[in-house]
Specification:
The protein has about 190 residues and is an alpha+beta fold. The protein has 2 domains: about 1-35; about 45-185, no CATH class. It has one helix spanning about 1-35, and strands at about 50-65, 75-80, 90-95, 100-105, 110, 115-120, 125-130, 145-155, 170-185.
Length: about 190
């Protein structure tokens, strides 16, 4: 009889623990669903609670460096962003105002320079947080009303370590990254 009482108590404790784990998992999923895919990032480049992710794209492209006689200077991006189904949705490029993204639907956002940045991996370009320039963020579509852009999970893209052979030499360095586009919560 005591064995049955122990087994009942042990099973009851196990079921309570399982219920706790299930409730914790459900609350974690609810928080993630509310956060809408926001990446985990270092404190220095966090967006804050007043903005929410409205689009996430995976970029494949190059960082373009030009040798100026002293160093490779600042990179200019050229990349294609894909949605979660592998569809091309955004082109990423440099402008005189800063890095820009243009969606297939014609919406566009330009990021304000200089960005907040964190080096997470020395073999990859930094993770960035760029504020959108409101007067250069326009058009209908996925990028409309963008307030911030995150570049995270970067691979590659770092300037060459060796000096250039001549002033004006161009190096296109492949990179991949995840881009998250945010809007203000109203």
């Amino acid at each position: 009889m005591k064995a049955n009482t122990y087994q009942t108590q042990h099973t009851g404790a196990w079921l309570r623990a399982l219920a706790f784990v299930a409730a914790f998992a459900a609350s974690t999923l609810a928080v993630r669903a509310e956060d809408n895919r926001a990446p985990e990032v270092p404190f220095d480049i966090q967006v804050g609670d007043t903005n929410k992710v409205h689009f996430h794209g995976y970029a494949v492209g190059v960082q373009i460096y030009t040798w100026n006689g002293t160093d490779w200077g600042n990179a200019v991006p050229r990349a294609t962003l894909f949605d979660e189904d592998g569809n091309v949705v955004i082109q990423h490029f440099g402008t005189t105002n800063g890095p820009a993204w243009r969606s297939n639907s014609g919406s566009e956002v330009v990021g304000k320079l200089p960005p907040k940045k964190v080096i997470v991996d020395e073999s990859a370009i930094p993770w960035l947080l760029l504020a959108a320039i409101p007067e250069l963020t326009h058009g209908p579509g996925i990028l409309a009303d963008t307030s911030f852009v995150h570049r995270v999970n970067t691979v590659g893209g770092v300037a060459p370590k060796e000096p250039g052979a001549f002033v004006g030499q161009v190096a296109e360095v492949p990179y991949n990254a995840d881009y998250f586009f945010y809007r203000l919560i109203h």
